[in-house]
Amino acid sequence: MKFFTFRGGIHPPEEKETTAQLKIEKAVEPATVIIPLQQHIGAPCEPIVKVGDAVKIGQKIGEAKGFVSAPVHASISGTVKAIGDVPIGTGNEALAIVIESDGKNEVDGSIQPKGNIEALEPKKIIDIIKEAGIVGMGGATFPTHVKLSPPPEKKVDTIILNGAECEPYLTADHRLMLENPDDIILGLKAMMKAVGVENGYIGIENNKPDAIDMMLKAVEKESNIKVAALQTKYPQGGEKQLIFAITNKEVPSGGLPMDVGVIVSNVGTAAQIAKTIKTGMPLIERITTVTGKAIKEPKNLLIKIGTPVKELIEQCGGYVEEPGKLILGGPMMGFAQHNDEIPAVKGTSGVLVFNKEEAEMPNPLNCIRCGRCVEICPANLQPVYISENSLANRMEHAEKYRALDCIECGSCSYVCPSRRPLLPSIRVAKNQIIAKKREQKKSN
Q1: Is 166 annotated as ligand-binding?
Q2: Is the same domain home to 260 and 121?
Q3: Which of 25, 45, 274, 422 could make an SS bond with 183 (beta carbons 3.0 to 4.6 A apart)?
Q4: Where is the signal peptide (predicted)?
Q5: 316 is in an annotated binding site
Q6: With a threshold of 0.85, does the pTM exceed it?
C-alpha cells in the first residue's frame, strides 16, 4: 500500500498507546454546564434565553447572527442560572449560559429525524448542518455550513475527511473510526451531496492500521469514496498538507482549499452530521481524550458540551500527582490553561495533564541560525524571521515573511535547539496583523 505524505514535518513521540485501545465511555451527566456563546471561528451568538428559563436537551439557546457563526444548544435539561462572561480555553473571556440540571434529561420537542439523505435537497442538508451548530470538530471549529457553501466561481470536486489525528496523545478520532465507521461514511455522503461533488477521501495515518482496515470495509460498496493511507508524520492532518498528500494539489499562499477544488473536514464532524440527520439532535456532545502522566485513569469520553474540565478529570480518577501543565487540545497546537474550571466546548478534542517534569520549559537561548525550523516547516515559511520581527514589534516585516500563512503547528518550536519561542511569537504577529487589517477595513 502506498503511503501519502507532504514536504517537511516532524516525528514527535506519539504517546497514544495509553488510550488507543480504550473504548469510548459515556461521561457522567454534569450537574451544571457552562455553554459559551462563541465556540467557533467567527461571530459569537446572541442569547435567546434568560435567567430563570427552563430549557431542554437540544433546545437552541444561542442564535447565530452572522454568516460565519454557529448556534449553540442546551446539552442538558434544567434551569438557566446565569448569563455572563467566563474564561474559555483560548485564554479569552466569552459570554456564556450556565444551566443547572433538573435531572430529568428531557429532550426538546423540536428534535426530530430529518429523513433520508437520498430525499434531502442539497440546500436542506446545509440548513440542517447550520441549525445544528455543527463546526469542525478536529479543533479548528470553523462553521461547517460555511465550508459547504463555496461561491459559485469556486468549483469544488473533492471532499477529504481528516482521520489522521496526527497530534500526539489524542485518540478520539481513532476510536470513532473503529466504533462508528458507518456514521462517518453517511456524514461524508451528506456533505458530498450538499456540495455536488463526486470524489470523497478519508485520510488516515498508517500508525492506525486497525482504523484503516475498518474504514476500508466501510467503503467497500462506495465507488466514489476512497481511504488514503498516510505516512505517520506531524502535521499530516493540516488542511493544506492533507490536500497535497492525497491530491498533489498545492493551495496557493493566502488561498483556501476551495481554490484548488477541495473541502477538508473531520471524521468527527461527518459522524455528527449523520447523527443529526438520523435523530435531529444538534451538536451537544463530543468525544474527548483525557490523558497524560498526571491523570490516574486516562479515557476516551463522550462528554456533554459545557462540562467543566475539572469534572472530566475527576471521572478519570483525578490527578495522580501534582499537575505541571493542563492543555486543551493536543500538545502541539493546544492551549495551556491557568486552571481546570473552564468548560469543554465543541472543539475540545483532548484534555492533557502533564506532570511537573514533562511541563518544565528550558530557558531560550540565542538563535544559532541552524535552519532546522525552515527545513521542516510544512508551510514552506521561514519561522525564524517571522518570529524575529514579531519579537522586535516589526509586524509589517513579519507579514512580508508570510506570517499569515503559518498553520500554527508548532513544528518549528519543537525542533529548535535553542528553544526559541517561535510559535508563540508568530501567533502574536498573526493576531496583530489580522487586527490591523480589521481596523483598516472598518475605516474604509
Answers
A1: no
A2: yes
A3: 274
A4: none
A5: no
A6: yes
